[in-house]
Amino acid sequence: MKDLKNKVAYITGGTKGIGFAVAQTLLNQGMRVAISGRSQKSVDQALKDFNNDAVLGIVSDVSKMTDEKNAVSKIIEKWGQLDVVLANAGVGNFAPIDKMTDEEWHQMINTNLNGVFHTLKASVEALKKTEGYYITLASLAGTNFFAQGAGYNASKFGVVGFTQAAMLDLRQYGIKVSTIMPGSVATHFNHNEPDEKDAWKIQPEDIGELVLDLLQMNERTLPSKIEVRPSRPDKK
């Protein structure tokens, strides 16, 4: 097992759901973790829930390059390094393409696709120094299209393609790059209220375990694209 103690991670969309669960998993390994969210309120609540001095909370909108550069600067200023980045922030607007608004389309592309680009561009030089790891949180919607999902599919297909191409570009620097593509996860995504009805779904902490598995992988091996789905789908 690799010793991850005092390594530094940055997780976008880390105030709840998958991002929060991954952050907790990494904190349990002795890592220092920066999380970002779009509002001060959400960041403050997450910091209260973590109640851990090894967490840095940052307000950042990943659709804005300046925000992401500022976030990485704060992390380097505080801890002097950056070892792991999880581009997790995402939104979903689902509607038939003839009903989807310009605003809904651009929100998904700007957050889900442009956001992962901004996060990588802001952090890549720091990751070169540590031969770090860049992970994107895509979706099975990045390979499986569905009705009312044109905008979301477009963004997640883009994330998968972007990440795989970036992996080929960056491995020459010793940077590992992977994309994780979950199916149904028990989170608040798309206005869901997770409860016992979601017991069959992937749980956020399961993605945390998966991220940890990637970080513990032998340096010679790179799982570059990981599809993950519930083992027993809900019977409808």
UniProtKB/TrEMBL annotation:
Family of this protein: Belongs to the short-chain dehydrogenases/reductases (SDR) family.
What is the name listed in the Swiss-Prot or TrEMBL entry for this protein? NADP-dependent 3-hydroxy acid dehydrogenase YdfG
MF terms in GO: oxidoreductase activity
Listed InterPro entries: NAD(P)-bd_dom_sf (IPR036291), Sc_DH/Rdtase_CS (IPR020904), SDR_fam (IPR002347)
Q: Which organism is it from?
A: Maribacter orientalis
Keyword hit for NAD: yes
PANTHER family with a match to the protein in the record = 3-PHENYLPROPIONATE-DIHYDRODIOL_CINNAMIC ACID-DIHYDRODIOL DEHYDROGENASE (PTHR43943:SF17), DEHYDROGENASE/REDUCTASE (SDR FAMILY) MEMBER 4 (PTHR43943)
Instruction: Tell me the PROSITE patterns matching this sequence.
Output: ADH_SHORT (PS00061)
Q: Which keywords accompany this UniProt record? A: Aromatic hydrocarbons catabolism, NAD, Oxidoreductase
Mind giving the lineage of the organism this protein is from?
Bacteria, Pseudomonadati, Bacteroidota, Flavobacteriia, Flavobacteriales
Q: Which SUPFAM superfamilies match?
A: NAD(P)-binding Rossmann-fold domains
Q: Does the keyword NAD apply?
A: yes
